[in-house]
Amino acid sequence: MLDDKNSFNYDNRNLSDVFKELQEIRNNPQAQEAYAKQAKKAKKQHHKPKAKLGQVKSHSNVFASTFRTKDRTSTPKSNDLKLSHILTGCGILVVCMALFFPKDLAFTESYASTDTSQEVEAYELNRHRLNMQSIISENAGMNRVKEQATEERDVEFETTYNDNATLPKGEEIVTQEGVLGKDQVTVVKTYENGNFVEETILARTNLVEPTPKIISRGTSEFLAKHQVHIGDTMYLVADDKLKSEANDTSSDVADVKASIDVKLLELPSEEWAKVSFDGVEGYIKTSNLTSPTTTPNIVEKNRIQRILLKVNIGMELNKSSGLTLNDYKKIFTNIPNDKNKIFENNYQVFYNMEKKYNINGIFLAAIAIHESGWGSSNIANDKNNLFGYGSYDESPYESSQDFDSYADGIETVAKALVKYYLNPAGTKIYDGETAEGWYYNGPTVEGVNTRYASDENWHTKVYSYMQMLYNRLNS
């Protein structure tokens, strides 16, 4: 604190003492007032009336004489006095600036070119002051390293989509795989404490262009509905004709039955499809095509239809019919003309003969129906002989052979037809035997007729029964 005796005695004070007093004055209003009075008093004492000219000279002479005397004997102290005066003057200047320029006024007048009272107020209310010591401490221990590198990097490829009317709608296939490109890149990488932080790319040079990935995207609602693709098998809903061109007025190429399978070759439009039917190519309307997805039983119907397509008067009878046991059951069950249920009860026998001796079982049954009148003849009833086997025209009943059961008679006739009528001599047949071929004139119903029956129309009558039995598959 200041006192009246030595408030302005600065000869024995250093600069730190001056700043200490300055801080006390700024924080104490009473000290500021006392200091102002002392400063005013000191100013008056400093400006005393000048001495007369003669006196000045006298003092000068004395000072000069004294200086010369001391110069001879010791080092003058004038330099120390001057430094003290300078330091004291600086201290007084700082104090005066603090007194005459208050803190708030000095800030606003020095740094604000306009009225910034709101900004100053916001500044004064800021409680989140920066802790410089903490910031310095944190960054002092941080190891930040930058390095420049040149390296090759992958370049991503683009993916493009192309509409494809020959694919089901919503389906996609990759027609070209994408291949990454290569770039040579010069970068500056920044690491902090060994961890990658960021990088700056300085230069980039393309080495290999990327190859785009191409995806073909289907648009066909027809293919999507039936869940098929080009090259798949489809089936006809109804009888139709293949056309030479994709229009109604073009010429017919072939007749195709319902349920028959065709191979889908092309799809020129949503209305027409190009198909192949047993090697014959043509166009058919898509509205008459179906698939197992939309018609679940179409495959079974196709199997039956394919069997029926082979039924003709010239068909080979020394081959299996392709029918299943269930097919035989369906054919021979509930036939109105089979009043005694003879054929219904023996459908499996006809099936077994086909599998065992490689003879068409429907042909065998058709002969039995024709010769016995649906099992109603006396020979059939009395001798279990459905074929009139062994009989002659002069005495058919007497000459016909007796069998223990219908099954025995069916098997005997099957073996005889295979050995003598349906296969040429030397053909390997059942049980390691070979065919004799004595009455062989071709493996057809007409060929068998040549030596089997005296009736020239026998083969047409037998074939009509065959057609009737086969057609029961569609009932």
What do these coordinates show?
- This protein is an alpha+beta fold and about 475 residues long.
- It folds into 4 domains: about 15-110, no CATH class; about 145-215, Resuscitation-promoting factor rpfb (Resuscitation-promoting factor rpfb fold); about 225-305, SH3 type barrels; about 310-475, Lysozyme, CATH 1.10.530.
- The chain has helices at about 15-25, 30-45, 55-75, 80-100, 105-110, 115-125, 130-140, 220-225, 300-310, 325-330, 340-345, 345-355, 360-370, 380-385, 395-400, 405-420, 445-450, 460-470, and strands at about 145-155, 160-170, 170-175, 180-190, 195-210, 215-220, 235, 240-245, 250-255, 260-265, 270-275, 280-285, 290.
- The strands form 4 sheets. The protein has a 5-stranded antiparallel beta sheet, with helices on one face. It has a 3-stranded antiparallel beta sheet with strand order 1-4-5, with no helix packed on it.
- The chain starts with 14 loop residues before the first helix and ends with a helix.
- Residues about 1-10, about 45-80 and about 105-125 have low confidence and may be disordered.
Summarize the structure.
The protein is α+β, with helices and mostly antiparallel strands and 475 residues long. It contains 18 helices and 13 strands. The chain has four domains: 96 residues, no CATH class; 73 residues, Single Sheet (Resuscitation-promoting factor rpfb fold), CATH 2.20.230.10; 78 residues, SH3 Domains (SH3 type barrels, Roll); 165 residues, Lysozyme.
